[in-house]
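[Meeting: bench + compute handoff]

Bench side (C.D.) handed over the final construct sequence. Compute side (W.E.) agreed to return the predicted structure before the next meeting so the bench team could plan truncations. Sequence as handed over:
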Amino acid sequence: MRQGHAERLAELADRYGRMVFATAYRVLGNAEDAEDALQKVFLKLLSKWNGRLKPDAVRDWGAFLRVSASRCALDMLRRKARRKRTTDTLSERVGLAAEENPRHLATRREEARLLREALSALPKRDARIFALRYFEDFPYAEIAEQMNVSVSQVGVILHRARKRLRDILEPVVVPASPGTRLASDAGQESGKENSNV
């Protein structure tokens, strides 16, 4: 590896490392796995620079690395599902409010675990687009640009992903429990369809 690539990689890691970790953490819900994803993202970037990608070829490093982190985290979820190992805990919240109901917290943890399992069953592209929209809050246009699809395709894929997730989760999630919706008011973004999972 050339010295310039090493310096550029170190700059990117300093500037975007926390964001990459946070992106992976939101998908994986586990700090150790998110740390692994962080390392994989930058190692993969390094190998791309030694191959076909030029360091100055990326217009928006933040978006590029968030997409990479999301993709890596989803791939890790799939590998875990294939090995029939799933994570049992939702992201541990620092400073949990004393008045929070432990039963509600346990329900949310279980729902998050079930969502992660269900996401691993979606086609890769659909899961990536779902994660970018609902974990990373990317607008449709940015998802379309990052995933090389049209804005209307993003809408169709999200609709299909929500329907598939609903089909997977409906039999196991009690409908009356609070917080069972997967994507908070999934369809209320800028006049998009009004469908919840």
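W.E. noted at the follow-up: The chain has seven helices and no strands. C.D. will use this when planning the next construct.
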